[in-house]
Design a protein that fits this description.
Helix content is about 40%, strand content about 15%. Strands 1-9-8-5-4-2-3 form a seven-stranded mixed beta sheet, sandwiched between helices. Bound molecules: pyridoxal-5'-phosphate.
Length: about 400
């Protein structure tokens, strides 16, 4: 069943994956069994974490982190508007407030100079704090509780600086590493760069479980609490119909966990293939007028390529580029629409265009090209030759 079309993204699934899922169907255990335990163990070993908690999505994992960090109604959390909406939605689930800080124009990750300023101002309170807070939807006297950085496009944020801010103001760090499994920041693995980190395994990610996610942490108490919350609030020793906490059904299925074990075993191979594809793109983009290749910054000692996002030159009509590529059979996507400009965010917090200019500029010029570990060089060449025609 070969499909000659070029897709935005495509999972790398083989016989080993199919076999592993099929084998689960010969057992009666489809949830909370040996596959889940083994998958968690494997993820923990891969990143060097003491604990890994598998859940049914990256969003679910981030929500558990928000609960475990004790973030509650009215609390403030510093985070980035240049991300997938889930990284901020999890605060809204608890009626907490995402306080946005603009991003670095090269990496697209939190601008740590502004983050430092914002944390200092929010700690000081008064007029200084007001300039960082949303126009509405914030309680008087609300307290800053945490920082939620996102390792955007597979590149870790600047955690040395983020750690410094967090220690000074006693803030928890929740690392949204949903786009960065396998990445390293100055030699340290993504996921463990804060107090807790989350990976996601939707089919467009570097590895997939269909739907799924894993939280990693070195804090045993946090891990126990998350294990309880993902399983309807049942604490470790609770009987099946006893619920110590208000919890959720965030359990992963055994089929997903079995798939995840095989994919994780291939992760380094998949990441190497993605790096190769990114290299083919970057070679062809250098010297192409109108489009800039993404940059891997120095602190990223290992890149985990999630997407390949070209930055179009100022003044190029991106919609027109997308249409013309589409007419040539090449899918592409505007990437990201800033979180603060999503309708429900504007309505709730009064955000306006112009509030986070770097995020808005990146959001207006970013074009994600087809990207996966199974693309070959001829396909990359085809995408680039069409792009060259359109831009030329
Ligand atoms: C993919 C992603 C998530 C969560 O993904 P799910 O679809 O819930 O698994 C969260 N944050 C970021 C930045 C992501 O890219």
């Amino acid at each position: 069943m070969t499909d000659p079309r070029i897709h935005m993204s495509k999972p790398a699934l083989g016989d080993a994956e199919r076999q592993a899922v099929l084998e689960v169907l010969y057992t009666p255990t489809l949830s909370m069994g040996a596959q889940t335990a083994a998958f968690e163990q494997a993820v923990a070993e891969y990143v060097g974490a003491q604990h890994a908690i598998a859940v049914n999505s990256g969003t679910a994992g981030l929500h558990l982190c928000v609960r475990a960090a004790g973030i509650a109604a009215g609390d403030l959390v510093l985070t980035t508007p240049f991300s997938f909406v889930a990284s901020s939605n999890v605060m809204l689930f608890e009626n907490a407030v995402p306080v946005f800080v603009d991003v670095d124009p090269v990496s697209g990750n939190l601008d740590v100079a502004q983050l430092t300023e914002a944390a200092d101002a929010l700690a000081a309170g008064g007029a200084a704090a007001q300039t960082w807070l949303p126009r509405q939807g914030v309680d008087a006297g609300a307290a800053l509780k945490a920082i939620l950085p996102v390792d955007v496009f597979g590149q870790p944020a600047d955690y040395d600086a983020i750690q410094a801010v967090a220690s000074q103001h006693e803030l928890a760090i929740i690392e949204d590493s949903c786009e960065a499994i396998g990445a390293h920041y100055r030699g340290r693995p993504a996921g463990l760069l804060g107090d807790m980190g989350v990976f996601a395994f939707y089919p467009n990610k570097q590895m997939t479980t269909g739907e799924g996610g894993v939280v990693v942490t070195n804090d045993g108490q946090v891990a126990d609490f998350m294990r309880a919350l993902r399983n309807q609030g049942r604490a470790v020793h609770d009987a099946w119909l006893q619920h110590t906490h208000l919890g959720y059904n965030y359990r992963i299925t055994e089929l997903s966990a079995a798939l995840g074990r095989v994919q994780l075993g291939r992760l380094d191979e998949l990441l190497a293939a993605r790096e190769q594809v990114a290299g083919w793109y970057t070679d062809r983009l250098s010297g192409m007028a109108g489009g800039e290749a993404p940059v891997v910054i120095k602190s990223t000692t290992r890149m985990s390529w999630f997407v390949y996002v070209v930055r179009l030159a100022q003044g190029i009509d991106r919609e027109d580029v997308i249409h013309r590529l589409d007419a040539a059979g090449i899918p592409s996507r505007a990437y990201f629409k800033p979180i603060h400009l999503q309708p429900y965010m504007m309505e709730r917090f009064g955000y306006q265009p112009g509030d986070f200019p770097v995020t808005e500029d990146l959001g207006a010029r970013g074009l994600a090209l087809p990207f996966s570990s199974v693309m070959n060089e001829a396909e990359v060449e085809l995408v680039c030759s069409e792009l060259r025609k359109v831009l030329g």
